[in-house]
Every structure is written in structure tokens, then in C-alpha cells.
Elongation of very long chain fatty acids protein (Allacma fusca), 271 residues
Amino acid sequence: MELVEEAKIVAKVSEYAVAYDFEVYDIIGTITWFRKNRNLVYSTIGLYLLAVYFGQKWMKSRPAFKLTLPLFFWNLGLALFSIICTLRGMPELLNFLSKPDGMYLAACVGPPHNFATSFWGLTFVLSKFVELGDTAFIILRKQKLITLHWFHHASILLICWIGYEYYETGGRFMFINAFVHSFMYCYYALKALEIKVPRTISKALTTLQIAQLSYGVYGVFYVLFVWARGRPCRMNLETVVFGGSIFAIFLVLFIRFYRQSYTSHNKSKLK
């Protein structure tokens, strides 16, 4: 099937999502602005890493801040955003995946634009700047800051920015991450209030994160397979290679974290 014909199918399955007035924006102009200002994300990541390093040094000789209510409302706000983002963005992805050859439609076919999905995709990218604040709470409360945390925030911000620059079709899958965050930030909000959450919940959340990363790695190999067969796919090599590398690294780190946190051998060591 030719790309133009598949685009027509996408047009039909996209009709269900009606955008509100505030969700209609200048997509081309925004993409152009992102492409001209990639240095902004590099600068932000650089400042973030400096803040992580010097923030921990600054807090070393100071008592930990409690920050119970600010942390609760912070996580609650991110949870509500993630839920709305999922509700507005996920239906298009699920609709595509339900069609014959749905993985190809979702991952490789671009036009026409769906404003509702596009708008919440943009807000999802911008939310990665906001989520850097998660690290501030860890540092100010003098909790252990693991490598997985700061590396995750910095690299995801960069890959989301680059993905929007190219307006990647595979960006539709970002709403899986929003879905996972809906549960994750609800969990963090409860933990902020010192509500005892069963260990099985945290274990399930880590498992869910591993599952989404595994699906991300699968998606990268799928696009490479499509290219190998000579089939058109509107994805950029930079995003595929960089994104695939990041997903693979995350997958290894999360599996390592799972084993350290939940296996019986390591649980006894932690005790």
C-alpha cells in the first residue's frame, strides 16, 4: 500500500477526535521555533546537571526540608496533567493500532495532523521541563539521588525536544508514557503524605515502566525492519538511533533497579 493511500486511511480514523478551540495552534510555526532553538534544551540540561551537583553540595551541611504539602500538590498536579494528556492523546494511538497494519499506521504515517493529539503532544514535551523539579524535591529533602533519576530526566527532555523538531509520527507512542505517569505521580502524591502504599504497588509500577521501555525498544526495531524492507516510514534516523539507545539504556537500568529493589537476595541486603 502506498504512503498516500495510507494517509487517507489515517484521515478517516482521525475524524473521531474533535479538537477544542484552545487545542488548535500553529503547528508548523511551533516546529520551526523548536528547530531554531535547540540550544535552549542543551542549556537547560547543562544548568540542570550543575544544579544537581551543587545543590547536593549545598544541602550537605543543612537539615532536610520537610516539604510535605508542596510535594503532594506537585505530584497531584503532574498526575492530573498526565491523566488529561492520556485521555486526549491515547485514543488516536489506540484507534490506529486497532486497524489492519495498525503498527505501521501509528509509527510511520504522518498526515493529516490531528490538532487535539498534536496539542497534548506539545504540552507533553514542555512538561519535561517542569518535571526537572522532581529532582529539586529529592535534593532539598536530602533523599538518595540515584543515577537513573537524573539521567532519565535529562535524556527524556532531549529526545522529546528532538522528536518534536522532526514532528515524528512515532511520537504518538509518547502517550503510553503519559499513561504510566498517571499512576506513577498518583503513587508519589500518596507517598508524599506518608500514606503507606503496599509494596506490590511500587513493584507493579516498576514492572509497568519496564513494559513500556520494552515496547519502545520493539518500536525502534520495527521502524528499522520497515526501512530494511524498503517501505516508506516518516521517521528520522537521528531520533530512531538516539531514542533507541536511550530506551535500551533505560531498560537495562530499570531491570537492574527492579532486581536490586525487589528480589529476595537484595531485599535482605537492604535490610
